[in-house]
Design goal:
The chain is α+β, with helices and mostly antiparallel strands. It is built from 4 helices and 10 strands. The chain has an 8-stranded mixed sheet, covered by helices on one side.
């Protein structure tokens, strides 16, 4: 049996990959081929998350056991130990593939079709359009995104060139701040 997956990323609207692969392939085999198809390296921690129809993850399948379990009684599911057909059964089944754990960036993967008559030994890239997002976010970009979500740039009254950071009144509720209640040394 052969599965055809459609892969897309919300941060790269023109990006799309379609891969056919044996339903008996392991999640690790799919992982390795997917990374090859998007030009990513194999040396980063990644994981799959089975997801419901609203893309809400409910079960993770990990690349490696790092010993950090939320439920110590439950063993983690590892990519090498499970075949795609162990969890994915029908068209429309979904999963996320988190390729950048620090930034929580993922591909959205849908099982587009199941061909019960066809068997393949080697995965195939059947559609490749657009450029995938960078594999890893620049840590400075992440810091700037966090800062820019809390602050806004404003021009200094003294100069057109000087810029300073100012608190965003809506974000922090500065209208409600009573300066008389603050203790200064």
């Amino acid at each position: 049996m052969t599965y055809r997956f459609v892969i897309h990323a919300d941060e790269a609207p023109d990006f799309r990959r379609e891969i056919t692969i044996s339903s008996n392939a392991t999640f690790r085999e799919f992982h390795d081929y997917l990374l090859e198809c998007v030009g990513y390296t194999l040396d980063e921690m990644t994981f799959f998350s089975l997801a419901d129809r609203n893309w809400i993850p409910y079960k993770s399948i990990l690349l490696a056991d790092l010993g950090m379990h939320l439920d110590e009684d439950e063993e983690p599911l590892l990519m090498d130990d499970y075949r795609l057909s162990d969890f994915l059964k029908s068209e429309g089944d979904r999963m996320l593939f988190t390729y950048d754990i620090l930034s929580d960036r993922s591909f959205y993967i849908s099982l587009a079709s199941v061909d019960k008559e066809r068997e393949i030994d080697v995965p195939e890239l059947v559609v490749s359009t657009g450029t995938p997002p960078d594999q890893m976010s620049d840590p400075m970009d992440l810091l700037l995104q966090d800062v820019s979500s809390k602050y806004r740039l404003v021009k200094s009254a003294d100069s057109d060139e000087d810029e300073e950071m100012a608190l965003d009144d809506e974000e922090f509720g500065l209208d409600d701040l009573d300066l008389e209640d603050l203790d200064f040394l």
